[in-house]
Amino acid sequence: ITSMEQKCIPSDRVCDAFDISVGHLECSIYHDLLWKPIACQSCETPFCSACIYRWLIANPNNCLNQCETFVERKCPPFIAKLLAQLHISCYYQSKGCRQIISYEALKKHESECDYQSQQCPGCRLQILKKDFDNHTSGCAAIEFTCQECKLVYERVDAATKHTDTICLRKQLRQLREESKHNKQELHKLTNLWDKMCKLSESYNVFNADKKTIAFSDPEFAKVTIKFNDLPSATAECKNIPIIYRGLKWNKLSYMDKSYAIKTCPKSGFATSFDSCGNLHLAYLKDEASISIESTTETFALISLDACAAWKDDLELTITGYRSLALTDTHTVTLLVDRPQHILLEWDNLDKIIFKSSGGTTDPDSLARSNDTQVVINQLTIGLDL
């Protein structure tokens, strides 16, 4: 992990800044050295871009200094000029790097530094980049996969677990299993063909007699909500209207794709946009609800696609109600980088409640203990006809 991935540079890494007051170059939010700074147009206070974008997610449009509305502007030129004069020790100084780099060259150096650690795929030890190739070329725990017999074995076991004889025997065994499987599949296909022939005969009989089969109308109309019809929100997050798609929405907000990529590119918001192709995403924090507008009607919750915004292992509990009585409940564990399809198929509801809690905070991220936002890509419901 580099300073850039941490999105902050501790001030104690600044070297030889005798003529510069480093304290005046610190971010007002996390009090580390400014990185990729921007400023508030009203008070001209500079912030790290990542820090203020994160602040605005939790506090839409509000400047840290209580300005009426936060409007972004470029960092004042004199701040950028002072930052460019700084020299900073490498993030990997504790691993042995002795380089002192200019502020503007820091990102490039740390991404290429030979003293960053890489995990060996064999023994799983953390090895310095400069020693990695030499280590992996001789690591006894490195795994190989034979292209002929598909056996996976470690380098140390090559002479005993993957001899020519073992390889040939394994290939022969696989051919036998494949032949057996093919026979079973052929038998299934033959049975399926017989069934299709019988169905075809039955269809011809019905058609000859001019008979028709009537199907009853479905009990409800299935609707998939992807939130793309909500008003544009490229500059800020907005609340979903109280009445939307015939339902009442309480404490659910939505975000535009461009805003998510700009303000929180490493979060579950950006991950969800990559996977679903929406223009907007809905999200909630701690607790939210959806209910039917009419007291005499019901709806069905068929499924939803969701993931955690900031913390892995976040628990989302969904409960369904009818006339204040609990009818259904389901709890699922969400991850940040893996949107999950949750199939429920609950019907006869007049209200559903979402509650999020827990989660694992990555110590190297900017997530806080109360960051329990849940991202919803889409929601499939059934409305009474």
Task: Explain what the structure shows.
The chain is an alpha+beta fold and 385 residues long. The protein has helices at 3-6, 49-58, 77-84, 106-112, 129-136, 158-161, 164-208, 257-263, 268-276; strands spanning 14-15, 37-40, 46-48, 72-74, 87-89, 100-102, 117-119, 126-128, 143-145, 152-154, 220-225, 238-239, 243-244, 247-250, 253-256, 280-285, 287-292, 299-308, 312-322, 325-334, 340-349, 351-360, 373-384. It folds into three domains: 3-112, Herpes Virus-1; 140-214, no CATH class; 221-384, Jelly Rolls. Helices cover 26% and strands 32% of the residues. A hairpin with a 2-residue loop joins strand 13 and strand 14 (247-250). The model is unreliable at 209-217 (pLDDT under 50). InterPro entries: Znf_RING/FYVE/PHD.
Biggest sheet architecture: 7 strands, antiparallel
Shape descriptor reads: flat
Oligomer: single chain
Mean model confidence by pLDDT: 87
Span of the ends, CA to CA: 55 Å
Radius of gyration, in angstroms, nearest whole number:
30 Å
Q: Supply the number of structural domains.
A: 3
Tell me the helix content.
25-40%
- CATH topology label of the largest domain: Jelly Rolls
Please give the CATH architecture of the largest domain.
Answer: Sandwich
Protein name: RING-type E3 ubiquitin transferase
InterPro entries: Znf_RING/FYVE/PHD
Organism: Rotaria magnacalcarata
